[in-house]
Design brief:
The chain is an alpha+beta fold. It has a single domain, classed as 60s Ribosomal Protein L30, Chain: A. Helix content is 31%, strand content 26%. The strands form 2 sheets. The protein has a 5-stranded mixed β-sheet, with helices on one face. The protein is globular.
């Protein structure tokens, strides 16, 4: 088990096996030492765990948990691509999308769920550039979607 997975396990989390794509895309794409993930939604055990918009049906705390789950799903996709999460030398960029009700402006607080998980798992290598974007709708009616760019060794 990788050191990253051990840290996650200590937090009560497990890196999931990635879900099969539901449309015309691949879960990850590697070029050189960078791996890009497709956007991941808050699915666990094949079921969407959260639905709705922030500022309406979904609280900031629920959105935070949803973004955290999205990041965990990104890690699952990355593990399937590179085999060992300890090969990640840097989380370069995180892009978080937040389905937002009119007037909701706390997207950064929501996407902190992903960012804080990555720093807890990777330490300084988990610190990253980030965008937190409010959108009208997301696939399946989910509140959050997260994608990542990481640098890997080898």
């Amino acid at each position: 088990m990788s050191k990253v997975e051990q840290r996650l396990q200590e937090m009560g989390l497990e890196v999931p096996v990635p879900a099969k794509p539901v449309a015309a895309y691949v879960p990850t794409c590697r070029t050189g030492n960078l791996v890009f993930t497709a956007g991941q939604v808050p699915v666990a055990g094949g079921e969407l765990q959260y639905r709705g918009k922030l500022g309406a049906e979904v609280s900031i705390e629920e959105g935070y948990a949803a973004a955290r789950l999205c990041a965990l799903n990104c890690l699952g996709a990355l593990k399937a691509e590179i085999g060992d999460l300890d090969r990640i030398t840097r989380i370069v960029k995180v892009v978080g999308f937040v389905a937002s009700a009119e007037g909701f402006t706390d997207q950064p607080k929501v996407i902190n769920g992903a960012s804080e998980l990555l720093v807890a798992a990777f330490g300084d290598a988990g610190k990253h550039a980030r965008s937190a974007v409010g959108v009208a709708e997301l696939p399946l009616g989910c509140p959050t979607e997260v994608e990542m760019i990481v640098e890997v060794s080898g």
